Amino acid sequence: MTDELFLQAYDTYKNTVYAVIFNYLRSAEDASELSQDTFIKLYTYDGEFDSDEHMKAWLIRVAINGSKNHLRSRKHISSSPIPEDMSSDDRYETDEIIAEVMKLPEKYRVPIHLFYYEEYGISQIAEIL
Amino acid sequence: MSENKYRKAMDGVCDKQFRLTGEEMLEKAKASSVERNITMNATKKRNIIGKFIGTAAACVIISGTVASAMGYGPLGDRFRKFFGKDEITAEIIDEGHFCEIGQEQSDEMFTVVLASVTGDLSSPKMLFDITVKDEQLAAENERLQIYAYTLSEEKYLNELDNYAMWDAYGEKDPDVNNLYHVCMNGASSFMINEEEVIAAVKQISFENDSVNNKFDYDVNMEYRFTVPKQALKETVREYYDDIPMNSGNIDYRLFFCEFGAYDSLFKFKYDFLGTELAGGETDYDNLYAKFDKDWHRFSDTFILSVDGTEYEPKELGYGYCDEEGEAFDAGTCCTWMTFPSVDYANAVNVTLFADGEAYVLKGNALELKNEPVNPRPDSEKYKESDGSSLYEYDNGEADLFYDDIVLSSGNVDYRLFHCRFGKEDTSLSVKFDFLGTELAHGETDYNNVIDAFDDDWHAFAGSFVLNVDGTDYEPKELGYSYCDTEGESFDAGTCCTWLSFPGINYKEAESVILIANDKTITLK
């Protein structure tokens, strides 16, 4: 993959990747680390993508697999996944919505994220998961 | 919950917390790529060395006869000392199916030795010895857990993301305080072909870690070896010309059996397109629950008779549908079941019974001695009953499916359709309709009324009690609702939610009763 294509992909999909991992791990620090791993895998990927949608689906798939592998060993779930340095106004609204979603069990939390954030249909979500 | 609000909120989190610029990420990717190349090159070097060791010295087949002659006694005794409950593997070792590897790797925390390989062609086993150098860590833990990939070299280097790790627990050596022994399942597809295998141990985990508070330790220890065919006990594989067995809804076609030391695997194909059960639906993702239910109900009637000894199913699989037609014809699905291990090779007559019908697999037809434990009710009896289907498993867990038992909160009719009795949780799933209810106040967009329905469910289900053999349990966790507005899983406008109680052993319980306000439902 060329540097230019990589930068473009990173700019387009960094939130997509981070958000799906964050939904699994519920830890900002771990999500950040695993997101970087995901993009490193993209950089070293030897295959070709048919389209941007194909790349996006690949990234989400790799992010989910990475999260699941990470979770298999995880003992502690962060109890405060909301960033500390947000303004109080932002924090209130973000806290409430994100916190409510984060309370859901994984089997609902992740599909809901994919439905509302990525606007995938249910069949697509089932394929990804 | 508005989707715009959720997206905005999540974007805010992403932007604040994941701040690596594109240039910074590119730099990291490039640096990692250089490291990976170095690792890969080193790997290739080790590959050659590993191969040499593998064929020359590290994989030594020791037969039981040789071991006895050398004064070792039954070779499986050492295995029994550490893995006393696994008599099957111990006997396989006694028979001489055992391959010594003896590859050692070490880092600052651990020394891990891939000691040997044993098992059979369907369930190979890798035996590891792990020394934990931190004596305090070892003192706090009677066992540890390891995670490893088992793959071919090609898959390991190029397709790692498509595979998950295996894991296994290791028990402490009775005589050495910081030594643990692990018996881990290997991937049979990669270990039976006499081609080189990589076992890559990636993590070692502990339940207690008061000193480092880390619990999970990343390791990177790769072991390359080739398993000679005679090191693994033979299984018997039989292929059939799609023997059809009808459940009343579906023709399940038996096409393959593998009789191993650990169990007997039976694989079936079936078509879903155009069947009445599919009801015109062409996307199997929307049908799998119905077909799994049909398969589990049908396979409960199966009995395997081997020279007159009868066996019930041990484990039931779930259907997998090959929509792209890569393995089978498109629209053809596959499922499976296992029975306990049987000596198929030496058996004279083997018959499989399904719902009372006999299918001869070997020799002459046998007769059924015992009725199946969970006979499939005939259709009339099924309709007259409470409409439930029960699937019990040997480990005490169970699934109970209902044809919608109504539990009314006064505002909403919640319809109980599934109970899952697990070790950790007992979870109950309910459906409900929101369209046209008073609580919805004419609203058709569930996003705008979700809080009202969640509040109703929590107020209602929060008072439920699960009585198990006279002991009352309160709910452990209450779910939030998810509404299938597009009708892809349920009817449009139908929502789903759940609650859980503590886990119970369904098999051992004599009486399980759900008390939902004024309604009492006997679950057992």
From TrEMBL, chain A:
* Membrane-spanning intervals of the chain: none
From which residue to which does any coiled coil extend?
none
**Is the keyword Transcription in the record?**
yes
- Please provide an example of a Pfam family that matches this protein in its UniProt record: Sigma70_r2
* Molecular-function annotations in GO: sigma factor activity
Q: Which UniProt keywords apply?
A: Sigma factor, Transcription, Transcription regulation
Which InterPro entries did the record assign?
RNA_pol_sigma-70-like (IPR039425), RNA_pol_sigma-70_dom (IPR014284), RNA_pol_sigma70_r2 (IPR007627), RNA_pol_sigma_r2 (IPR013325), RNA_pol_sigma_r3/r4-like (IPR013324), WH-like_DNA-bd_sf (IPR036388)
The alphabetized list of GO BP terms reads: DNA-templated transcription initiation
Q: Please list the residue ranges annotated as the RNA polymerase sigma-70 region domain.
A: 10-75
The superkingdom listed in its UniProt entry is Bacteria
Cross-referenced NCBIfam families: sigma70-ECF
Q: Which family does it belong to?
A: Belongs to the sigma-70 factor family. ECF subfamily.
What is the name of the protein in this document? RNA polymerase sigma-70 factor, ECF subfamily
Tell me the lineage of the source organism.
Answer: Bacteria, Bacillati, Bacillota, Clostridia, Eubacteriales
Automatic annotation (TrEMBL), chain B:
Is Transmembrane helix there in the keyword field? Answer: yes
Source organism superkingdom? Bacteria
Q: Alphabetically list the UniProt keywords.
A: Membrane, Transmembrane, Transmembrane helix
Residues annotated as transmembrane: 48-72
The identity of this protein, by name, is DUF4179 domain-containing protein
